Amino acid sequence: MPVFRFEIETHPDLTRGHSPGEAKREMLPQVDARGAALGRRLQAHLGLQATDIRSRSVYLCALEDVTQGEAADILRALVDPVLEHGTVGMLPDQPDGADAPEVVEIGLRPGVTDSVGRSVLRAAEDCLGRSLTGTVYTATIYRVWGLSREQLSSAAAKLLYNPLIETLQIHDLPRRLSLTVPRAGQSQVPPVATVPVRGMDDEALLQLSQRGMLALNLHEMKAIAAHFAGLGRDPTDAELECLAQTWSEHCKHKIFASPIFYTDPAGNTRVIKRGLFRTHIRGATEAIAEVRTAQGVDPEDAPFLVSVFHDNAGVVRLSEADHLVYKVETHNSPSALDPYGGAMTGIVGVNRDSLGTGLGADLLTNVWGYCLGPPDHDQPLPPGLMHPSRIREGVHAGVIDGGNQSGIPYSRGFELFDTRYLGKPLVYCGTVAVMPVQSAGQPTHEKRTKVGDRVVMLGGRIGKDGIHGATFSSVELDEDSPVQAVQIGDPITQKMMADFLLEARDRGLYSGITDNGAGGLSSSVGEMAEATGGAHIDLAKAPLKYPGLAPWEILISEAQERMSVAVPPEHLEAFMALARAREVEATDLGCFTDSGRFVVDYGQTRVVDLTLEFLHNGVPLGELQAVWQPPTRALTNPEQVASASSANALVDELRTLLTSHNFASHEQLARHYDHEVKGLSVVKPLIGVHRDIPSTATVMRVRHHRHEGVVLAEGIHPHYSDIDTYAMATAAVDEGVRRVLCAGARLDRLSALDNFCWPDPIVSAKNPDGAHKLAQLVRACEGLRDACETYGAPLISGKDSMKNDAYLGGVKISIPPTLLISVMGQMPDVRKALELAPLCVGDDIYVVGETRDELGASQWARLHGWELDSVPRTDLVPCMSRYRAFVRARDAGRVRSAHVTSRGGLAVAFAHMAMASGLQLEIDVDGSRGQLSPGAWLFSESTGRFVMTAGQEHRDGLRRHLGAHGLIRVGSVVAGPGGLSLQTNAGTSMLTSEQLRTWFHAREEGRHAN
Amino acid sequence: MQTEANTQQQVHHALGIDSTRARDVRVLVMTGYGLNCEAETRAGFEMAGAQVCERHVSEVISAGRQAFTGFEIVACIGGFSFGDHIASGRVYANRLRGQLGDSLATFVDDGGLVIGICNGFQTLVKLGLLPGVGRKGPKLAPQTVSLAHNERLGYRNSWVRLRFATQSPCQWTRHLAGELLEMPSRHGEGKLVWGPEVGSAIEAGQLVPVRYVDHNNQPTESWPANPNGSPAGAAGLCDPSGRVFGIMPHPEAYIYPEAHPDWQRQRATGSLPSYGLGLRVLAGGVRAAYSG
What's the pLDDT tens digit per position in A585-642? Predict the structure, then answer.
């Protein structure tokens, strides 16, 4: 097959610039923005100062039956005639009279998804007017002046490329024409192997599990051996892999399903027989559903909870026309290996979860949140870890590209930094979708797959990417972590598939759908088979990216952008025709049966024949041990705290807080994410006069021409876990709920999602304190349940990631137990929404809810390195009655702006309000703090509190509504230069808005440039 | 529902729309291939009183020479056509040029109106419809202008201030002459680049109907008021007929008053408009369509 090499770059006439005398307004020197960006990264991360960098796109077209003349035509179709020039072959590397540059070429490794290459192929086909056989491979060349080869070589792995997915070459000049392409695959298909598990002893079984990346324990391996002994045969490699995927912690949530023996500090043991999920998570939701029924909250034929726990995402009722769908996922392990690709597959993956719920939902908005090592970490890193600033950069870029290219705005975004996230970053991605109550005349939330329906795979092709993703995420990260686990997203393929699916849904062309995520076809078809009681597919029909995949690899590949769909035979033709018209690849792989078996062939060869019973219910659950011991450590001398708590210290303390990573603005990063596509945003992620303050909660319309809105917020307090995970969990729920209430959410339409990220809670030689971490998990679940039940916020979906430890170079780094609670509220009319910014001079400023001396694990205490034990405790019942009263006052129109206290307590809340308003906030600290020190009042993170402003005419009304709920008037909004004035007996500390903003933005690159 | 209808009447009145005549204006919104602003573009034109037909590009292409028959307005919407791989709008524009080029040129020459927003603008430029200087029907012209990467590399979503030219043939914006509007800018490739001859023709023809302005309302090349570094703050282009208009920022993203970042302050001070002001741009096209 001939290979043509295209090189395209910004036209040098444009980049050269002009001397001032001859410069014309219309001919501004055109910057090579991509080259300039690399220059900035080299400077920022490594302190390397290149004098010039020029980038160049390389397309290697390996296309059958394309002539030299046609290649020239294709090139012309690709080159921008105004901006660029290009050639078939090579462009010159050294301009006349200039020094020789270093020439670096970065390409992709064989088999890595190359979505730009696919688009070039499409453009080539359009240009020649016929379909083409072959592949286009892309690469990038950078010509660098002012850096030595040694400097570039050392920068290479740190910054220029990721060896797991990319290749890098530094060329000798003159460069020779290279037509080598990273062709993947092999001509021979590896045969199906039988694995002789029946004869294996314990050690051999464990070795098989470890070597094969199966992540199964001895009990599970023995259960498999026994099962096949009963069948009188050994399993195939594909059967073993299929079981490993389906039984993985990632898919089966064994830690949440197993019985737990919990021992308290007094030595009393109780048993949680039905496991944490059924007892506490589903238990909470069922209890709430019962209360709603008993109290007649919902009309009988229109329950609030439409579909929870059994589908890809939770579904709740919004209006007579629409339901809301919500799912939040984590993609931690892939993001540790390849931050960009891992995070991108995180966001497009969770999009597919919401898309694949019921018969499909319209994607509305994304959320993201990252727990990362500090970006300025300056200690040596264990081998195998990327620097947190590079992880941060890649993770943001991946979710930005994934979300933007899919046309989905984001609503919520947060970053939280702690050195314990160095080993594994936590990458949360979530998606809210809107589901029409009916589509094609049927309820949309139910799948209706029938025996005989076809199994159709849709979207991207299958490669080796993402093999063992599900099992990999179920073990700790180490030097041997598999490179195949890295997947690269291709948002455009998915966007086209999603558009197609919604069209097909509205025409009623399919009866069931699910995402091909973890475990690939083995999981998606294996799960869908439960609807009818069986499925039979042929892997030889599956479209591959390249030849030579073993059948087991096809079965479990996690190659992205794929969905599995059940299509009734009478609609198959129409379904396939629509797919062709929309350029979405669809393949009929087999059919759903009622045989009770999951049967997989590869042509004439039987590859898998497992009963659904064994596949889904055969996993043996162990009994787990949890032992709770409250932390014992030396507490900080109270005098130390007292000296920082005095009135004189407040300004310095607030500055330290606002300039620290966990409070610093991330506005510039966040602006790379689209937050307004769809035109429905009401309260945006960043608000205020300078549009840089994170909003308390976001509000978005749900459909055009209507006024119902979805209100989103979250709570996450991993640091409280250091003292007590029960308090951590209640604080997380409380904050999420309080936030959405501030913005205007109804109290009777709350729902919540739980995402547990935990250090390994199973005792082993490598993990001696597993029983303690499991006890922390039990306590967190108890707190979660208590809070959700009291607040009437059912858990509608969740996810757990239970092995967030890294063992590298003899060092173990474990994350703190982390629970993200995402709360989704609803409001009937978004025009009533509230924000945190005070709006009117003369308004009163109130705090509602008691502030207590609860500085333990607060951000303030952590910055000082104080060990204190008074972690915020949430009194759930009084909080709930306070929230009812607040909502009544709010809905009566007595509240002008509302905000929560969170990390950093009242001090940070006031600072945000001042910066957002541009007005002056006068706070009477001494008149408000009661017995507390000024520092404790301002920095304590007591939960359950609101900070709000209201017109003076509402003083009496508010006292009536909220007087019994800890309402204190703490100050007022006055005319003035804008800022925050903290009044104490020792005098007034005045912080101008500009001063606050300087601190807040101190860590942002380029904020004040230009 | 009566109230809703009354509200709509009031909005039309404020927009200068004759509801009866607007009802006959049919807008084609082309979708698919990674474009993604169809819902708000549709809703915006509906609020401006027109009838909207959303149609996948592949269906439009199948219709061949009849593709644009029966429409007064064609909307090329925002999004990431084919992922913006290679360059924004490149693959999409090539496909339209190859499959629909003549029909599109004829549609414009026969009096049709075209708006390109963001990716749609990038596409119209690559189709040679903008600025379209010297284009002789019924063919498309070669591309003479481009939209390059923002000088600060990367996508950016932020509200910008725009001022509309007092003198411009643009039919979409002539009722906005000299006025200021704010709306979101959301792109990574929005810097207009052209050669000297084309630049002179653009200047002579007054084909830049809208510019980014700073807090003194003066055209600016400085970030962040100008998000991409476009020369003299150029934020859009029209063709000499004034019927084809391209704009980088998104008027269709400001179709509700609550989309504005300061809407709560506006509500508190009684200055919240009764409709999203981005509708004024879309309404300009609808008015031009029924006024002929």
Answer: 999 999 999 999 999 999 999 999 999 999 999 999 989 999 999 988 889 998 999 8
Secondary-structure class of domain A195-273+447-619 per CATH: alpha beta
Query: What is the pTM assigned to this prediction?
Result: 0.96
Distance, in angstroms, between A455 CA and closest chain B CA?
25
Residue numbers of B between 1 and 30 with CB closer than 8 Å to A: none
User: What does the pLDDT read at residue A477?
Assistant: 57
| CATH of region A3-171 | 3.30.1280.10
Q: How far apart are CA A557 and CA A484, in angstroms?
A: 9
| Closest Cβ–Cβ partner in A31, A81, A120 for B151 | A31
Position of tokens 């205490």? A861
- Evaluate if residue A373 carries a pLDDT over 90: yes
Contacts of A37 in chain B (CB under 8 A): 153-154
Q: Residue A918's CB: how many other CB atoms inside 10 A?
A: 17
List residues bridging with A981 in a β-sheet. Answer: A922, A990
CB pairs under 8 A between A and B: 209
pLDDT digits (tens, 9 = 90+) for A561-580: 899 999 999 999 999 999 99
Task: Tell if the CB–CB gap between B148 and A83 is shorter than 8 Å.
Answer: yes
The phi, psi pair for B113, rounded to 5°, reads: -105, 145
- Which residues on chain A are in Cβ contact (under 8 Å) with B78? 677
Residue of A846, A993, A972 lying closest to A914 (CA atoms):
A993
CA distances from A730 to A582, A844, B234 (A): 47, 30, 52
- Is A691 in Cβ contact with B159 (below 8 Å)? yes
Distances (CA, A) of A333 to A114, A330, A483, A591: 22, 9, 11, 34
Token pair recorded at residue B98: 């190859």
Mutation target to probe the B interface, by most B beta carbons within 10 A, among A80, A348, A500 is A80
Query: In terms of DSSP H, where are the helices of chain B?
Result: 2-15, 19-22, 38-47, 57-62, 90-109, 119-126, 196-205, 263-268, 279-291
| Domains: count for chain B | 1
Concatenated DSSP letters for A177-203? P---------SSPPPP-B--GGG--HH
Residues of A in contact with B33 (CB under 8 A): 496, 583
Name the residue type at position A580: R
CB atoms within 10 A of CB A266: 6
Helical spans, DSSP H, in A166-314:
202-211, 218-231, 237-246, 249-252, 254-257, 275-276, 282-295
Give the C-alpha distances (Å, rounded to integers) separating B268 from A742, A889, B123, B189, B276. 17, 18, 41, 37, 17
The pLDDT of B42-46, averaged and rounded, is 98
Dihedral over Cα of A838, A843, A845, A849: its sign:
negative
Nearest Cα neighbor of A428 from A312, A348, A328 is: A328
Distance in angstroms (rounded) separating the CA atoms of residues A918 and A916 = 6
Residues of A in contact with B40 (CB under 8 A): 677-680, 704
The CATH number given to whatever domain includes residue B277 is 3.40.50.880
Q: Which domain holds residue B216?
A: 2-291
| ipTM summary value | 0.97
CA dist A667 and A1001 (Å) reads 9
Across the interface, whether the CB atoms of A830 and B90 are under 8 A apart is answered no
Q: Helix (H, G, I), strand (E, B), or coil: what is residue A780?
A: helix
Give the torsion sign (CA, A984, A989, A992, A996): negative
* CATH of the domain spanning A656-664+836-1010, picked from 3.20.20.120, 3.90.650.10, 3.30.230.20, 3.30.460.10: 3.90.650.10
Place of tokens 């979860």: A353
Q: What distance in Å separates the CA atoms of residue B80 and residue B187, rounded to the nearest whole number?
A: 10
Domain ranges within chain A, ordered by starting residue: 3-171, 195-273+447-619, 656-664+836-1010
